Amino acid sequence: MAQSKIEKIASIEEEIRQLKERQKLLKQQHNLQERKDRTKRLCKRMGLFESMLPGTIPLTDEQFQIFLEQTVATEQSRRILDGLTAQNAAAANPQGVQAAAQGNTAPATNPVIREPQNGEDEDRDEGAAQG
Length: 131
Known about the structure:
The chain has 131 residues and is mostly helical. The protein is built from 5 helices and no strands. Helix 3 crosses helix 4. It is elongated, with a radius of gyration of 26 Å. The relative contact order is 0.06. Residues 103-131 have low confidence and may be disordered.
C-alpha cells in the first residue's frame, strides 16, 4: 500500500514536471509569435510611410527622429491619434464607451492638450512639453 502511494506521488511529480515544460514551450512560442507580428507590423508601416514620403529615405536616423518629433509628435497628431484610438475602443467594447460617454468611467490616460494662446509658438510649446 505504501509503495502505491509513493508511486502515485512520483507519477504526479512527473506530470507536474511535464506540464511545466509544456508551459515553458508555449510561452516561448507565444513570445516568438509576438516578435514576428511586431516585425511584420513595423515593416509594413514603415513601407507605407516611405512610399508616402520618399524624401525621408536618405535621412540619417537622427534626422528622421527630428522629422518625426517636429511633424508627427504635435498636438494635432495627438488629437488625431486619440480619435482613432477612441474609434478602436468603441469597436472593441461598445458598452465601455457608452459608460464613458455617460461619465461613469474615467477616460483612458491621455496627455492634456493645451492650445497655443495669444500667438504662442506651437513648436516652442512642444519642446517645453518634451523637455
